[in-house]
Amino acid sequence: MIGFLLKKNLYDFWDNFFKIAIINLGFIASVAFPVFVPPLLASSLVLQMGALLVGILWCFVYLSAAAFSLKSVSDYGNFGFADFFGSLKTIWPMGLVLGGFVFLGYILATVVIPFYLSMNSLIGLMLAAIVFWTLMAGVLAFQFFFAVRARLDTKLFGVIKKCFLIFFDNPLFCVFSLLCNIIILIISFFLALLAPGPAGMLLFLDEGLRLRILKYDWLEANPDTPRRAIPWDAILIEEREKTGSRSLKSFIFPWKD
User: Fold this and answer.
1) pLDDT tens, 176-186?
2) This prediction's pTM
3) Which of 125, 177, 226, 252 reaches 20 to 30 Å from 89, CA-CA?
4) Residues 235-241: contacts with CB within 8 Å, 24+ apart?
5) Cα–Cα distance, 83 to 77 (Å, whole number)
6) Do residues 59 and 34 make contact, with C-beta atoms less than 8 angstroms apart?
C-alpha cells in the first residue's frame, strides 16, 4: 500500500505540476502577511498578536480551499481555478477552525511549555511533557483535518472525532505521513516552496486518507478479515489499473509516447 501511495502521489503531482505550483504561489503570497506585518507592529503586543492571528487564519482558509480542490486530483479527476474559489466559499469555516487550533498550538509550544520548564520542578516537567505529547497527538491527528472534511464529514465535531479515530487506529501510518510531509517540506524549501510545496503536502494526505477509506470499505464488506492481514493487493486491483505504470522516458517526456 505504501509503495502504491508514493507512486500514485508522484504521478498525480507530476500531471498537475503547474496548477499545484500556482496554488503554492498563492500560499507564499498569503504567508507574507503574518511574516512581515507583525514585526512592523512591535510597539503594540496586542496589534502584533492580532496581525499574526489574522495572517495565520487566512493562510489556513486558503489551504482549506486548496485541499478541497485537490481532492478531485486524488479521484483521478481535474480541477479549475473556478473550482478553487467555489471551494473557498464552502470550506472557509473549517480553515478558520484549523487555523485557530494551530495558533493555540503555537501559544502552547512557545509560551506554556517554556513556562512549565522554567518552574525547575518535577511537576513543571510533568506538565510540560503532558502538553508536549498532547500537541504531538494533535499534530498527527489534525494533519488529516481537511482531507477528512472533504471526504468523510462536514460537521466540525464529526471531523475532529474522525481525525482522532484515524490516528488511534492507524498510528504508524499517521507517523509515516507526517515524516513524508516533513521530507516534502524540506525538498520544497530548495524549490522556493513552489514544488511540491503545501499543495503537494495536502495532496499526499488526501491520497493517503483515500486509500485508508478503501481499507475500511473492505472491512465493512468483509467483516471476518483480520485487521492485521489486510489484503491490499486485492483492495488495490482497480486502483492499480487506473494509475497504470510509466517508463522514465514517458514520465519525463510524455509527448513522445
Assistant:
1) 999 999 999 99
2) 0.92
3) 177
4) 235/1, 236/1, 236/4, 236/211, 239/4, 239/8, 239/211, 239/214, 240/4
5) 12
6) yes
